[in-house]
């Protein structure tokens, strides 16, 4: 463990570390654009320059190995001068169109400009123009004028997603990031990570393009339910104080975008594109009225009816949801498991064309909490359900149930969040909340539990499964 | 000829580049001697003792580069001859490739033996046609004669030479950019550390030497380090090929012994300036070195110490003699257009700075210069200095600062009068 000195303070560093890593690990900040903790060192942005004490020049920290007794200055006069110059070089042909750029507010270039440069451009030459709104893929649009050619996106597709979809063509100040002809970025299920790692507003998400300024949005920590990896994510939605009072007020309760929430235990700094599209899952048409045989009823009435059916049942089978939170599944077990033979249902299967499994994140089971359910109900519960001939009640919780295979004579209590034709056929249908309307935990395939928080309030006509199970478990109140 | 000769020792004829002629000149004797009488480390010791300097431009001692490679370290080593001669004004390696390809091959074989290299590469400039054909034919001849391939000269030693043709990029002449190019990647130079002798081609120890540097190896092994040291000066042993062009009476490639007087070289060996021309300045070693005025260059002797003391460098030996009446503003414009066009675009200062410099000089030439432009040129040149991955950012800065320092009044004139002091002339003038 060599000891180095950063700005005069002794720091213990690992022999394999660079000065950049040692500094960041010990609370010293060195600015960087092209460096990324998960990617190889490119050393091309030159903003991370530091000075070794006694030398009259600067070197880049991201490629400087630590060595015993090294004295590094991260904020000397020479370093400040070079940083300022590098910022002037980087912004030389940058359009500075922050007013119409989605990255504004969370842009490294913007932050560094105020931190390390701050003065107007020293150039009076016209800017070099480049392609704007280049369709890099169906999901990503590229603005080459904003691009600072840090090559993070290129290295990501080579080293992390391994799709080799991106490269740089041309040379000098007309270099352009472009997709390869034979490896389209569309085929890369991790492509949208390049939007996050882009330090400027060059790579932008098409679904999010010009939808909101990021400072109007609030990130709520959540867990992606797309597969059993259970990547932690931030779900971005409008801050309550910035709710729209005009236009389409539904936007106040929409998911604006989803970004990874860095988590070394589960997903590192990445998520796949399915996780970016949680709006496609959560913003499907919702079931918001309780029903009995298709007839709308009050929620309390439906709960009473369900409770009565459960009380009367002689042989009851329950199909619980693998999209249920640990807390909901535990509530079911506490309140109802004694009355039911319980099976864990796989609510979602892979869509046609969806990647089943790979070495990075994507897992074959497309449900977030199969592990948590198995832990509660036992390994034998995670299989195709077997219905005894005298089954008189089936409780179905969540999607993915083939109703045609349920015993025809049995009564059906159905708990579901979305509009489905089967909702109306159930003897009792109770609408339940979705993940963004409650808090809880999912346990991923490795047994790591990650928590999600509430983004939006649920409607009063919709039940919360955790409370619902407690209510269903109590003895019927009597009235038929 | 300017001093003793080590490379240009034979008359160039229609067949002097062939194997038969080369063997008749005692060719491959040095390789045979190394292979049968010397251990690999002895060869490196001999090269180190000779004081052979790199001839690609930086004058880094070849022996020191070689000694970094650890022998018997259970991994492949690579050798690469840098024949991507792209520095404007330089065309001396071309002479070797065209007229003495077997000298290069023999020297590469000796180097491969010394460095335990199984596969050696020649990265040759894409625009070189005759040099490529001559070299390729020579490699074929060497294979046929058993100097290349398996079990060379009946020993366990085996070596292959692969010729790799570049595609016209200046930056691929930079050693690490060259290796990236061989690997099939963009010709982007790499950050040091690691040094190429630690982690080069395919992440293995790699020695990249200039063609001329390598070509001296055969002579050093044949005649010994002592004999090599007798040529040139004490600090600067040997000779250097100089390719001289411009307004000079006899342009071409000359082998100049270190320590030779420059005035004599220019005015006697090269026949002086073209009729009617007087010398204004010299670009001493490719356009990336600072220009020296006639008064500065004439008292110098031809060696690194003397040129460094004069504030410039011998570089790659690509001299350009520039006559009076040449417009230095236009000359700098041509140079900056080259650097702008050839910048690989990897690191920020060079990518943005080259374009910036070029746009400013274009504006001055268009008559729209502003007095503060000169300060901008200075500032951008200085700020690139040492801040780039490879030396090209520095090089363009040297060229710019060199010309600005010495011919600032021509720039001031053009900005003030909105026209060139010399009619925008790059051809010089016989009236001066």
Our Rg estimate of chain A from Cα atoms comes to 27 Å
Oligomeric state: heterodimer
Estimated structural class of chain B: alpha/beta
Separation, N- and C-terminal Cα atoms of chain A: 76 Å
Look at the structure and give the CATH class of the domain at 291-473 in chain A: Alpha Beta
- Measured by DSSP, the beta-strand proportion of chain B falls in 5-15%
Nearest-integer average pLDDT of chain A: 94
Shape-level CATH architecture of the largest domain in chain B? 3-Layer(aba) Sandwich
In the CATH scheme, what's the topology name of the domain at 291-473 in chain A? Rossmann fold
What Rg of chain B do the Cα atoms give? 22 Å
CATH topological fold name of the largest domain in chain B? Rossmann fold
What class, by secondary structure content of chain A?
alpha/beta
What is the helical fraction of chain A, as a range of percent? 10-25%
Q: Helical stretch count of chain B? A: 17
Q: Strand share of the residues of chain A?
A: 15-25%
Topology:
The complex is a heterodimer of chains A (480) and B (432).
Chain A: E1 3-6, E2 9-12, H1 19-25, E3 49-52, E4 58-60, E5 71-73, H2 77-90, H3 108-117, E6 134-135, E7 140-142, H4 152-160, E8 166-169, E9 176-179, H5 193-197, E10 203-205, E11 217-223, E12 232-238, E13 257-260, H6 273-276, H7 278-282, E14 291-292, E15 295-296, H8 299-312, E16 316-321, H9 326-336, E17 340-345, H10 370-377, E18 393-397, E19 411-416, E20 428-431, E21 440-443, E22 449-452, H11 465-473
Parallel strand pairs in A: 1-5, 16-17, 16-18, 18-19, 19-20
Antiparallel strand pairs in A: 1-2, 3-4, 3-5, 6-7, 7-10, 8-9, 11-12, 12-13, 14-15, 21-22
Helix pairs in contact in A: 2-3, 8-11, 9-10, 9-11
Chain B: H1 19-24, H2 29-37, H3 40-50, H4 62-67, E1 77-83, H5 92-99, H6 101-115, E2 117-124, H7 130-144, E3 160-165, H8 175-182, E4 206-210, H9 211-223, H10 225-229, E5 239-246, E6 252-257, E7 260-261, H11 262-269, E8 279-283, E9 292-293, H12 294-297, E10 301-302, H13 304-309, E11 318-323, H14 328-342, H15 348-365, H16 372-384, H17 392-417
Parallel strand pairs in B: 1-2, 1-4, 2-3, 5-11
Antiparallel strand pairs in B: 5-6, 7-10, 8-9, 8-11
């Amino acid at each position: 463990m060599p000891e180095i000195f950063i700005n005069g303070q002794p720091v213990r560093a690992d022999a394999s570390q660079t000065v950049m890593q040692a500094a960041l690990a010990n609370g010293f900040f060195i600015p960087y654009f092209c460096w990324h903790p998960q990617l190889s060192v490119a050393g091309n942005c030159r903003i991370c320059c530091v000075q070794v004490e006694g030398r009259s020049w600067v070197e880049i920290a991201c490629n400087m190995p630590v060595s015993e007794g090294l004295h590094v200055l991260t904020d000397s006069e020479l370093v400040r001068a070079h940083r300022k110059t590098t910022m002037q070089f980087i912004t030389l042909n940058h359009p500075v169109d922050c007013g119409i750029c989605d990255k504004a507010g969370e842009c490294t270039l913007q932050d560094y400009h105020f931190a390390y440069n701050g003065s107007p451009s020293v150039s009076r030459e016209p800017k070099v123009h480049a392609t704007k709104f280049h369709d890099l893929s169906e999901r990503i649009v590229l603005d080459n004028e904003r691009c600072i050619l840090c090559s993070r996106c290129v290295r990501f597709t080579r080293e992390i997603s391994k799709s080799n979809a991106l490269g740089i063509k041309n040379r000098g100040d007309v270099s352009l990031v472009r997709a390869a002809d034979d490896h389209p970025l569309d085929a890369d299920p991790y492509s949208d990570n390049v939007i996050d790692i882009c330090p400027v507003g060059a790579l932008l998400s098409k679904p999010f393009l010009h939808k909101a300024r990021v400072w109007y949005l609030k990130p709520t920590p959540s867990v992606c339910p797309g597969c059993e990896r259970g990547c932690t994510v931030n779900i971005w939605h409008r801050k309550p104080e910035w709710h729209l009072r005009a236009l389409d007020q539904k936007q106040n309760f929409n998911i604006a975008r989803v970004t990874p929430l860095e988590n070394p235990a589960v997903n590192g700094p990445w998520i796949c594109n399915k996780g970016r599209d949680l709006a496609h899952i959560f913003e499907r048409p919702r079931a918001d009225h309780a029903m009995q045989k298709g007839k709308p009823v009050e929620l309390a009435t439906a709960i009473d009816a369900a409770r009565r059916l459960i009380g009367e049942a002689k042989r009851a089978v329950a199909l619980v949801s693998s999209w249920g939170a640990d807390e909901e599944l535990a509530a079911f077990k506490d309140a109802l498991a004694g009355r039911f033979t319980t099976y864990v249902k796989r609510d979602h299967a892979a869509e046609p064309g969806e990647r089943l499994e790979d070495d990075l994140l994507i897992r074959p089971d497309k449900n977030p909490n199969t592990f948590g359910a198995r832990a509660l109900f036992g390994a034998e519960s995670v299989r195709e359900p077997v219905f005894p001939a005298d089954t008189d009640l089936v409780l179905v919780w969540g999607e993915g149930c083939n109703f045609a295979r349920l015993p025809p004579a049995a009564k059906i209590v159905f708990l579901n969040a979305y509009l489905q034709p089967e909702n109306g056929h159930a003897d009792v249908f109770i609408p339940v909340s979705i993940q963004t309307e409650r808090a809880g935990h999912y346990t991923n395939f490795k047994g790591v539990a990650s928590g999600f928080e509430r983004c939006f309030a649920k409607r009063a006509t919709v039940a919360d499964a955790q409370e619902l199970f407690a209510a269903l478990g109590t003895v019927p109140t009597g009235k038929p | 000829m300017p001093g003793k000769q080590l490379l240009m020792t034979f008359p160039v004829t229609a067949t002097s580049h062939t194997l038969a002629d080369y063997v008749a000149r005692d060719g491959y004797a040095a390789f045979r001697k190394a292979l049968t009488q010397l251990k690999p480390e002895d060869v490196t010791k001999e090269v180190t003792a000779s004081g052979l300097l790199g001839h690609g431009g930086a004058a880094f001692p070849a022996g020191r580069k070689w000694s970094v490679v650890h022998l018997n370290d259970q991994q492949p080593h690579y050798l690469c001859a840098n024949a991507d001669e792209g520095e404007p004004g330089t065309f001396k390696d071309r002479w070797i490739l065209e007229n003495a390809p077997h000298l290069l091959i023999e020297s590469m074989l000796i180097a491969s033996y010394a460095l335990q290299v199984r596969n050696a590469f020649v990265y040759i400039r894409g625009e070189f046609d005759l040099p490529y054909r001559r070299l390729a034919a020579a490699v074929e001849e060497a294979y046929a004669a058993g100097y290349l391939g398996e079990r060379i000269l009946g020993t366990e030693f085996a070596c292959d030479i692969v010729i790799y043709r570049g595609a016209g990029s200046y930056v691929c002449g930079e050693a690490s950019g060259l290796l990236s190019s061989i690997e099939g990647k963009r010709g982007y130079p790499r950050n040091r550390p690691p040094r190429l002798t630690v982690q080069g081609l395919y992440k293995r120890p790699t020695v990249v030497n200039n063609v001329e540097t390598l070509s001296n190896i055969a002579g050093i092994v044949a005649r010994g380090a002592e004999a090599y040291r007798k040529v040139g000066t004490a600090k600067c042993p040997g000779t250097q090929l100089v390719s001289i062009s411009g307004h000079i009476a006899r342009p071409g490639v000359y082998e100049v012994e270190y320590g030779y007087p420059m005035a004599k070289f220019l005015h006697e060996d090269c026949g002086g300036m073209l009729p009617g021309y007087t010398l204004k300045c010299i670009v001493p070693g490719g356009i990336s070195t600072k220009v020296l005025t006639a008064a500065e260059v004439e008292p110098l002797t031809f060696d690194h110490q003397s040129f460094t003391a004069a504030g410039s460098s011998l570089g790659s030996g690509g001299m350009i003699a520039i006559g009076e009446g040449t417009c230095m503003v236009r000359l700098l414009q041509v140079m900056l257009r080259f650097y702008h066009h050839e910048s690989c675009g990897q690191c920020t200062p060079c990518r943005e700075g080259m374009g910036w410099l070029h746009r400013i000089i274009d504006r001055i030439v268009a008559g729209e210069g502003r007095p503060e432009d000169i300060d901008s040129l200075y500032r951008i040149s200085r700020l690139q200095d040492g801040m780039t991955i490879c030396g090209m950012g520095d090089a363009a800065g040297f060229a710019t600062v060199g010309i600005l320092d010495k011919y600032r009044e021509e720039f001031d004139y053009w900005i003030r009068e909105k026209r060139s002091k010399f009619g925008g002339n790059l051809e010089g003038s016989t009236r001066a």
